Amino acid sequence: MNRTLVMFALAALMASGSAFAQQPQPAPAQPAATQTPKEGSVNDRRADQQQRIGNGVQSGQLTAGETKNLESREANLNREVRDDRSVDGGKLTAQERKQVNHQQNNLSRSIYNDKHNAAVAHYGNNEVGQRRENQQDRIANGIKNGSMTAGEAARTENREQGINEQVRADRAANGGKLTGQEKRQVNKEQNSASRQIYRQKHSGK
């Protein structure tokens, strides 16, 4: 091949390479869009709320009164879900699910706020206080393991709140102490509350 032909071939090759380089290149593959995680199911969220409440009771971050209010709201929400499902063949409509999620969000914020406010459970190093703490630990375990329903926990904590208020009133009237008669009365009420906790934790609900 003579020199002219070689030069011509090289020029043609360079021209084709330049044209190829100028061809629009396909855009680099984009990473797949991150899928928005699905919201937890109604039952999963309910179980999570109960764990948080139970932990708050056990740590003393939630008082009996706060727990009573939270569990009353939880019981009402559970009742609403049951009623909706009974009407819709065991399922929730999209609108009902959205409404329940909204209510669960509100309850979740209330749990957080109650666990982080200034109100905490104080028991004291005395027999009455130790029994109160023991009762709360039993309630907390019942809430967390599901052996107590929200409604049962609300009723039990309502009773505990009443005992606590009585103890505070009696102590305020007696210079911070309880008389022998008051201690016997409180002990009797705590015995009754203890039996209620046992019955509810073994009711099979």
General description of the model:
By secondary structure, the protein is mainly α. It has one domain (42-201). It is built from seven helices and no strands. Helix 3 (64-87) runs antiparallel to helix 6 (150-173) and helix 5 runs antiparallel to helix 6. The longest helix is centred in the middle third of the chain and has 24 residues, at 64-87. It is elongated, with a radius of gyration of 33 Å.
Indicate the low-confidence ranges by residue numbers: 30-39
Number of distinct beta strands: 0
Shape: elongated
Count of discrete domains: 1
The biggest sheet amounts to: none
**Portion of residues in helices?**
over 70%
Order of helices and strands: HHHHHHH
Please report the number of helical segments: 7
Helix/strand-derived class? mainly alpha
Strand proportion: under 5%
Distance between the termini: 98 Å
Mean residue pLDDT: 86
Radius of gyration: 33 Å
Features:
205 residues, mainly alpha, 7 helices, 0% strand
Short overview:
The chain is mostly helical.
Outline the fold blueprint:
Elements: H1 3-22, H2 42-59, H3 64-87, H4 94-115, H5 127-145, H6 150-173, H7 180-201
